[in-house]
Amino acid sequence: MLSNYIITAWKVFLRRKFFTFINLFGISITLMVLVVTSTIADNYFYPAGPEKNVDNFRTINRLLVTNDEENLTSVGRLGYKFIKDNVFRLQTPELISINSGTRTRAIFHEGLKRELLIKKTDSNFWRILDFDFIQGRAYSIDEFEAGDKVAVINKRTQLALFADKSAIDQQINIENQVFTIIGVVENVPIVEATALADVWLPYTTNASTAYQQETTGDWVTLLYHSNPDIIKDVNTEFVNLLENDVQLDKSSGFSIAIAGAYSKLEQLSRELIADDKSHETHTGLVISLMIGLTVAFMLLPSINMINLNVSRMMERSSEIGVRRAFGATKLQLLMQFIVESILLTLVGGIIGILLSVFALYLIDVKGLIPHAHFSFNLRVLLIGLVLIFIFGLVSGVYPAYRMSRLHPIAALKGNN
Amino acid sequence: MLSLQNISKSFQTDRIETIALSDINLHVNKGEFVSVMGPSGCGKSTLLNIMGLLDQPSSGEVSIDETPITSYKDKQITGLRSQKIGFIFQSFHLIHDLKVLDNVELPLLYRKMSAKERKALAITALEKVGLSARIHHYPTQLSGGQQQRVAIARAIVGKPEILLADEPTGNLDSHMGSEIMSLLESLHQQDNTTIVMVTHDEEMAKRTQRTIRVFDGQLI
């Protein structure tokens, strides 16, 4: 019977080409947008670049300090002194890294001005994040502590500055200091903001040491443990420490510090629904919002398709009457229309997935999202298949159910 | 073969109750060719729908082969329709998305049968109505008379014992109508099929063995 349903469905699609086209267009475009969005989100939450061990570390990148009266407040990235006095007292992490926010700096190379993203880090930065070295190496703890003027650059910078030549041992002038390049890494996708830069330098090469006295500043901290289950608990330890034994410079006037060590999802949630005075991450709410947006996005074409399917089936009421008269049960009719709907959604889904692969390829080739390598992975494929299935059911079952319930005489009269 | 006992049918609308059939008693013998006549709205089609188990009476009993089917559930009634009854409609009701052959095969889809058997039976039915050369056409590519022949092939493909025709010549000119009537006559004679036909046309009715007249929902 199933083969009959499929054959009938196929004949109907071929005969009603415009309807089939409209339906396929609606399904495939909706699915393409959802799959491309899912792939980008997937790349954000499950990075393929240096942040690929995302489950093993947490980031502290925002701090609110205030006094008891709350009339003196400062919010921003962390100060070096605050990190040394507080974050370094944490017991949970195996490794702690301090690195600066990314700054754009103009450099001059062979008479040409280039703008590069500069990040200053310690040596633990290279141990926590999993960079892909094309040439050379990262700076060691000895080089870092000695304040050696060494640099790691990305592939894009290597090509821009040195073309085909090896960049290793070449020199680069940044902020009036000359650095020797010791490593070249693959470009970092823009969605991996913690690792992202064009050039990485040891922060011990800073001309001034004034930053070492700051409570708030321009620093980010990475907390790492080789066991993802253990690092999960670091936020609780950090929050307890800040609530019960925070060390703040008395001269600054601050007495209260609020910050948290968050995963990527928690960070995103806090950025979207930020309340610096609370530790609440609102991840549940953000996930619900994402699901809600996806549902809302799918709802419009679904309602459209339900409408289209109902009116199309109304046109076919005579067929329904004939089939009922000649022995089709309600269940058989229901199955026939569901198979039609699922088959159409499946074909639309396959086209949608092919369009998504093409769209992701375009995003990759055109560099719309810098250095991101979006590939169609199994997880996204599964999401796509689930979306197709839901879409097919939502848009097909209701009209099919309605039509299968039609009384044969009413159907034959076209009286719906 | 087909028996109606004390059949009444009324339709309830918001305000009024319309009585379509009132206390009908009718017996159609096996192999009989019966016509049903009456003015528009007198209940002819309702009578035919009840005979064809497409509609249920408000009261009374329908029996097929001496078996009352009043207590049958929808699935059993559907099965009985599939096995024993073929329908011919005034406006043909062919499925325009399907080719002639697929239209004729349709009643067999709801029986346990291979695709090969279905196709063979459909071609035989189309040969009987003289349309075996049109199996790959779509209904819209055929004339009205040809479409009704396809509808007749569809009605007889499952070799039903009863053929119910609701004004089968109503949408055709007199020449085409006469051809269709001849076809029904030959089916009746060759296969001994029981035929009940609703018609407005006295000439067509004269060609049947018995004419039942309905007026205001009652047999006269």
TrEMBL record, chain A:
Question: Where is this protein localized, as stated in its record?
Answer: Cell membrane
Q: How does it sit in the membrane?
A: Multi-pass membrane protein
What are the transmembrane regions? 21-41, 285-306, 333-361, 381-401
Q: Which domain of life is it from?
A: Bacteria
* ABC3 transporter permease C-terminal domain ranges (all copies): 294-408
The primary location reported for this protein is membrane
Q: Which UniProt keywords apply?
A: Cell membrane, Membrane, Transmembrane, Transmembrane helix
Q: Does the keyword Transmembrane helix apply?
A: yes
In this chain the MacB-like periplasmic core domain maps to 20-210
Family note: Belongs to the ABC-4 integral membrane protein family.
Q: What is this protein called?
A: FtsX-like permease family protein
From TrEMBL, chain B:
Q: Which Gene3D superfamilies match?
A: P-loop containing nucleotide triphosphate hydrolases
GO MF annotations, alphabetized: ATP binding
In what residue span(s) does the ABC transporter domain sit? 2-220
Cite the entry's keywords alphabetically: ATP-binding, Nucleotide-binding, Transport
| Domain of life, source organism | Bacteria
Tell me which SMART domains the record gives.
Answer: AAA (SM00382)
Q: Which family does it belong to?
A: Belongs to the ABC transporter superfamily.
According to UniProt, the name of this protein is ABC transporter ATP-binding protein
Origin species, per record, is Glaciecola petra
